[in-house]
Amino acid sequence: MEIHRYEKLWFGAALVLIVGFIATVVYGAAGVGISMVDDDGGTIDPNNVTDHPKFEQTGLHEAEGDDADYEASVIARRFIFQGADPLEVPENSVITFYITSPDVVHGFKIVDTNANTMVIPGQVTEMTVEFDEPGEYGILCSEFCGAGHENMAGQLTVVPEEEWGGLGGDS
Amino acid sequence: MSQASEPADPEVEMEREIEHDEFDPIGTLVLIAIYFLIISALWIFMYFIEFLGRPTPMVV
Description:
Chain A is an alpha+beta fold. Helix content of chain A is 16%, strand content 33%. Chain A has one helix at residues 5-32, and strands at 59-62, 70-77, 80-82, 87-90, 93-100, 106-110, 116-119, 125-131, 135-140, 153-159. The longest helix of chain A has 28 residues, at 5-32. Helices cover 43% and strands 0% of the residues of chain B. The termini of chain B are far apart. Classes of the chains: A alpha+beta, B mainly alpha. The interface between A and B is medium-sized, with 35 and 23 residues.
């Protein structure tokens, strides 16, 4: 079969484009280190979430390991984000979120970022995000959870380092 | 333009016969090249600036 030279040309270009798409996604996963949220957070008794060491106190606290600067414990329940309304973190910090639900499936989406995950009763959702620049981000429930779903929102504020008053500080 | 399955229209005279490789749709080639450039630029903008430029869950 004779194939016209132009057809060979754009057949090759289409292949290069597809390989390029796959290469950029592989670079994102292997080079930049983008991760999917998985079940590493472990399980929890949904009837007694505050018995779990991560949820005795909600809100921001010092990270236990070296992987993150701070940990944020959030209990997503109908129809609030306990511990994330508001949540203040300093810029250039790495935050590991621990999120769980005592009632139904919720979502935890930090608007204008790529952080978006399901929150499942009985499961601790663990997600690490780095915040480089100061800004205000809304937090939304991204899974329909009942009659108050549309009002279920939180607030995350990334404050400049010079204004950061530390944990429990006044800014 | 006649197809092999249809009888040639006797009213239409063949003006010029060309070989397979003499067919030279340069305009189509340019259009597709522009299309590829637009797609590539949009992908780079979307992936590297819009997606990687925002706070993103990462492996620690």
